[in-house]
């Protein structure tokens, strides 16, 4: 119970005076809630023809209809579920791989480190987008699950490098040496002693990857490499593009999914910036410095 | 020197990995991709080219290692055959027609965004904690976080389609003869404006952050305090003492950014219908033109690796500590 309270206190402390963090989290939470509550916010089935094609926004169809006569607002809400799920799934896969590779490489060192970092560096130097396009092209109309997997499996190298350097810095601290002398098992040192110190970095990495995955997924689907029968923000853009929505003046067809993607992207970026400003000592200025000092003082007061 | 040599070996390994990736991917597909490709082309191609393609892509009746050697040979000798989508133009010719457009866009966008971003970063660090310092980095990061596909679509809709200020696509007006004349170059520049701006919007944030962080680090050094104690004007300290040292990470990041700008133009070129390699790779995917698609991929990888290598050399040149 006290642990839960101190966790809540820590979260509250993170947000106090942190405008970027508050705005970003509010945007993302709001859109997430809207997508989850989709059945309450719209009565239309996103995959059924409910009106004539390319109707402008009206009282009945608040954001108009697509070429195929589907309700855009309903598609944006239900499609958001898919897009957000892919983003968070990809971010989870990436974080797990990056943590595993980075921490074991940094802690064990030696040959393990050399081999793992060689693989990481080769993957890091590859341009991601063309790699994704080739993968998606050979796999053929990839569904959301496959997109989440290939995004998760290809975007961990940068995070692994960050985790490794942080682990290297921690490895020579007294508390790790103490744990080793006391004869703690290696896995226990990694999980109990090292990992808790990587939480803020891992959070930053998770948010950063989710941000990247939202854009990459939308991009791949927009280019027609995804599965066009699954409604998501990316496939909405794809259908809008292939039905020449802009050229017939149906701007809502593009603007609605585009705005959702842009808002979630911007919100995640704001969260990422505020995590970074607090955890990265190089960036501390102004109000962030104050937040950081206060968080430090609170932690010290508890000890 | 040892450092450069080590990096060179590393990049060779990376190119080797890319070629192997190109070799393995079609073999993981169900069915025969060469047959699928010909089915997609719809009988446009003479049947004898089928055998030629199979041989070139290494689909021969031989053990896997022989197929691999065959493929390596055709890549190294640049014998990439004709494109299927644009039959019978050779793949190498298609690539040499498109790459300059992409490099042109990437180069100009990188230079402009460095100048703008560094200036903002410099100003922000100069007035640390001020309005620009608190708002500008966050603002640019917000802009850069929007997916390029979305930014490109919005800009296209507003400035090309609605306001009609800029053309709807292509590198230049089709009724103009290409040539190094002022009229033609002006037309190329006019067509490049929107793709350039979109590309820059996604790049400026990096430079704002790179420059600002580098400046913040340098401003804490003793020689800055010394310069202040000598009574130099703060402008002189900024430009002659701080910025000169802060520019080091920026310079080394330049060529890397150039490489990634080449790789990242897929959406921009698709939306603005710009005749570069990013649009080509998408068209070749849609047409199942595997030779062209794989060649595009390999070329982009090589561009990025070369840019990285130049960055390494610059780094050694600028930072004497690495020159051992």
From TrEMBL, chain A:
Lineage top rank: taxon: Bacteria
TM spans (from-to): 20-44, 84-109, 129-154, 198-220, 254-275
Swiss-Prot/TrEMBL keywords: Cell membrane, Membrane, Peptide transport, Protein transport, Transmembrane, Transmembrane helix, Transport
Pfam families: BPD_transp_1 (PF00528)
Membrane disposition: Multi-pass membrane protein
Keyword Signal: no
ABC transmembrane type-1 domain ranges (all copies): 80-272
Location(s), subcellular: Cell membrane
Keyword Membrane: yes
PANTHER family cross-referenced by the UniProt entry: D,D-DIPEPTIDE TRANSPORT SYSTEM PERMEASE PROTEIN DDPC-RELATED, OLIGOPEPTIDE TRANSPORT SYSTEM PERMEASE PROTEIN APPC
Family, as annotated: Belongs to the binding-protein-dependent transport system permease family.
Name this polypeptide is given: Peptide/nickel transport system permease protein
Gene source species: Limimaricola variabilis
Automatic annotation (TrEMBL), chain B:
Annotated localization: Cell membrane
Pfam families, sorted: BPD_transp_1 (PF00528), BPD_transp_1_N (PF19300)
Recorded superkingdom: Bacteria
Membrane topology category: Multi-pass membrane protein
Membrane spanning stretches: 7-25, 101-126, 138-168, 188-209, 246-268, 292-318
Principal place of residence: membrane
Domain ABC transmembrane type-1: 99-311
Keywords annotated in UniProt: Cell membrane, Membrane, Transmembrane, Transmembrane helix, Transport
CDD domains: TM_PBP2
InterPro entries: BPD_transp_1_N, MetI-like, MetI-like_sf
SUPFAM superfamilies, alphabetized: MetI-like
Family stated for the protein in its record: Belongs to the binding-protein-dependent transport system permease family.
Protein name per its UniProtKB record: Peptide/nickel transport system permease protein
Source species: Limimaricola variabilis
Phylogenetic lineage: Bacteria, Pseudomonadati, Pseudomonadota, Alphaproteobacteria, Rhodobacterales
């Amino acid at each position: 119970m006290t642990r839960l309270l101190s966790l809540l206190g820590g979260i509250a402390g993170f947000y106090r005076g942190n405008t970027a963090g508050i705005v970003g989290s509010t945007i993302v939470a709001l859109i997430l809630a809207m997508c989850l509550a989709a059945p309450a916010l719209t009565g239309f089935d996103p995959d059924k023809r409910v009106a004539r094609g390319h109707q402008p926004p009206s009282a009945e169809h608040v954001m108009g209809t697509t070429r195929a006569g589907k309700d855009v607002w309903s598609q944006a809400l239900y499609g958001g579920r898919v897009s957000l799920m892919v983003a968070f799934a990809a971010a989870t896969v990436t974080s797990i791989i990056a943590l595993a590779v980075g921490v074991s490489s940094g802690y064990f060192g030696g040959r393990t480190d050399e081999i793992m970092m060689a693989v990481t560096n080769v993957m890091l130097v590859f341009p991601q987008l063309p790699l994704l396009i080739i993968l998606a092209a050979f796999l053929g109309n990839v569904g959301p699950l496959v997109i989440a997997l290939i995004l998760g499996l290809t975007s961990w190298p940068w995070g692994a490098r960050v985790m490794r350097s942080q682990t290297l810095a921690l490895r020579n601290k007294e508390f790790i040496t103490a744990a080793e002398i006391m004869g703690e098992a290696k896995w226990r040192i990694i999980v109990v002693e090292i990992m808790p110190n990587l939480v803020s970095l891992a959070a930053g990495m998770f948010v950063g990857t989710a941000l990247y995955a939202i854009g990459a997924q939308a991009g791949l689907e927009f280019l027609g490499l995804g599965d066009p029968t699954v409604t998501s923000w990316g496939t909405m853009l794809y259908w809008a593009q292939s039905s020449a929505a802009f050229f017939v003046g149906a701007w809502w067809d593009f603007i609605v999914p585009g705005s959702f993607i842009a808002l979630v992207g911007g919100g995640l970026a704001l969260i990422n910036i505020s995590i970074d400003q607090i955890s990265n000592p190089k960036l501390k200025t102004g109000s962030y410095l104050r937040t950081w000092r206060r968080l430090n003082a609170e932690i010290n007061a508890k000890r | 020197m040892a450092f450069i040599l080590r990096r060179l070996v590393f990049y060779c390994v990376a190119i080797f990995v890319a070629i192997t990736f190109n070799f393995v991917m079609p073999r993981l597909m169900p069915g025969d991709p060469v047959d699928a490709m010909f089915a997609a082309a719809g009988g446009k191609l003479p049947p004898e080219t089928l055998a030629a393609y199979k041989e070139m892509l290494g689909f021969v009746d031989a053990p896997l290692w022989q197929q691999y050697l065959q493929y390596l040979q055709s890549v190294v000798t640049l014998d990439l055959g004709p494109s299927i989508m644009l039959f019978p133009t050779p793949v190498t010719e298609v690539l040499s027609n498109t790459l300059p457009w992409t490099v042109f866009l990437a180069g100009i966008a990188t230079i402009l965004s460095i100048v703008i971003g560094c200036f903002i970063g410099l100003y922000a660090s100069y007035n640390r904690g001020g309005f620009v310092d608190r708002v500008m980095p966050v603002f640019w990061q917000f802009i850069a976080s929007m997916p390029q596909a979305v930014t490109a679509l919005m800009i296209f809709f507003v400035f090309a389609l609605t306001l009609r200020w800029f053309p709807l696509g292509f590198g230049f007006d089709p009724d103009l003869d290409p040539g190094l004349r002022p009229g033609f170059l002006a037309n190329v520049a006019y067509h490049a404006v929107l793709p350039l701006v979109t590309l820059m919007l996604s790049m400026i944030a990096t430079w704002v952050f790179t420059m600002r962080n580098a400046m913040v680090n340098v401003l804490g050094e003793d020689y800055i305090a010394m310069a202040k104690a000598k009574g130099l004007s703060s402008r002189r300290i900024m430009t002659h003492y701080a910025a000169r040292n802060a520019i080091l990470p920026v310079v080394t990041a330049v060529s890397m950014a150039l490489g990634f700008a080449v790789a990242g133009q897929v959406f921009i070129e698709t939306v603005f219908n710009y005749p570069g390699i990013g649009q080509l790779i998408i068209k070749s995917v849609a047409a199942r033109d595997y030779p062209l698609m794989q060649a595009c991929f390999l070329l982009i990888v090589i561009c990025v690796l070369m840019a990285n290598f130049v960055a390494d050399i610059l780094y050694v040149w600028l930072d004497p500590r690495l020159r051992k």
